[in-house]
Amino acid sequence: MLDKTTTTFSHVKPADTQFVAGGLRDFFLYRDLGIAEATHGKVIAHLVKANMAPETGTGWHRHEADFQIVIMTKGWAKFMYEDKETLVQAGDVVHQRPGIRHYLFDYSPDMEYLEIVSPADFKTVGVEPVCAIPAPAPWV
Q1: Number of C-alpha atoms within 13 angstroms, CB side, residue 79?
Q2: Could you give the residue ranges of the DSSP H alpha helices within the chain?
Q3: What HEC string does 105-135 produce?
Q4: Which end of the chain is more exposed for a tag (fewer CB within 10 A), N or C?
Q5: How high is the pLDDT of residue 83?
Q6: Where is the Cupin type-2 domain (predicted)?
Q7: What pTM value is reported for the model?
C-alpha cells in the first residue's frame, strides 16, 4: 500500500511561480514546480531555461543523486556525456545515470527543459576534464 503521509498533493500553475535567477547556473533561469516541498525533499522538479548565451558552459561535473532525468521541452542543448557528444532536442528525454561525468557546452536561445532529480538537495561536484569540448555556436 502506498504511504500517503510522506508526500502532499501539489498543483502549481504557470502564474504561481516565476522563472528566477539564483539557481545552480547563473546563465539559466529556474522555475520551481513545488515538488521538493510536496515530497519533503525526496525529489525536485524545475523548469530551466536559457538566460544568457553560452560562453564557458557548465564545466565538467557530476551529481551526487540517485536519479536524474532531463526532458527537453524547447530548443536544443549539446552535452558531453563522458567522451560522447550528445545533441538533446525538444521532445528528447535523457536519463543521467548516477555519477556520470558531463558538461553542457552549447544551447539555443530558446532552450528550456524539465529536470527531475532525487534527492532534492543533490550535490554538484566538479571533476577533471574527460576530453576537449567543442566551442559553442554564437547566438545570432
Answers
A1: 19
A2: 35-38
A3: EEECCCCEEEEEEECCCCEEEECCCCCCCCC
A4: N
A5: 94
A6: 51-104
A7: 0.91
